[in-house]
Model the fold of this input.
Amino acid sequence: MPDFSDCVALVTGGGAGIGRATAAELAARGASVSILDIDPSGAPEGVRGIVADLRDSDSVNRAVRSVAESAGRLDVLVNNAGVSHVGGIEDGDLDEWHALLDINLLGYVRATRAALPYLRRSPHAAIVNVASCSAASGIPRRALYSASKGAIASMTLSLAADLISEGIRVNAVNPGTVDTPFMDDLAARTDDPTAARAAFHARQPTGHMVDPSEVAAAIAYLAHPSNRSAVGSVLTIDGGLERLRTTPAATPVEEPSR
Ligand SMILES: NC(=O)c1ccc[n+]([C@@H]2O[C@H](COP(=O)([O-])OP(=O)(O)OC[C@H]3O[C@@H](n4cnc5c(N)ncnc54)[C@H](O)[C@@H]3O)[C@@H](O)[C@H]2O)c1
Done:
């Protein structure tokens, strides 16, 4: 018996990477899954793709309403879509900071606000926010990106406290070095993308990048209706990158130059 068979789920950024793997995992386990993405062409088989931009409240509201009203319910929201940024506190003008926070933070706020009226009617509602291991470790030249992910990790805790009395569980995952187009893009911005990818693998205590399916499985675990007591958890799935110090610091990753 598929264990998500009575669930309707929405995954933001489900057209690629972690979101795509999560949509595929939930659908394979029987959920009715939709993704919201600026480019939903990568939606896995059996998953409904909706064009929407997390920077635009109307677009997000329309997409969430369409999913919940056509299915008659919404049980799971996975806030996942996000973008990277490389730089320190003095890099980029403030417009760049506003633009990234508009997706990585306010995008999660918009989707959550739009979904809550429907989640409140679900007997087993769950929200899973995708943060990052950068929320909990000091990664050089990631001031803006880390700030956006730290905000998600701490907002998750406050939301979990606010919503558990309504039966809505809120949790997060902190992935790290996941083999997705996001990391390909970071590698492509270095002088030697092949070497950068090799270094991404080498810096991991496990010796390999995380597969998106591993993060998807963790998200499904947190979202599962039977998992009544995972509340306000932030689950790290990063091959030990954040907490272990088993690899010599001498395994450098060439930093993107732009
Ligand atoms: N890949 C990693 O190593 C890693 C590590 C830690 C955290 N994360 C986080 O995981 C999440 C997913 O990362 P990924 O690696 O799968 O990324 P990805 O770039 O591979 O995929 C992101 C998806 O989000 C969509 N998207 C981007 N902007 C959007 C917008 N404004 N509105 C709607 N959709 C939009 C893209 O079209 C794409 O389909 C992000 O929040 C990222 O910060 C990734």
In short: The mean pLDDT is 95. The pocket of nicotinamide-adenine-dinucleotide is lined by residues 13, 15-19, 37-39, 53-55, 80-83, 103, 130, 132, 175-178, 180-183 (CB under 6 Å).
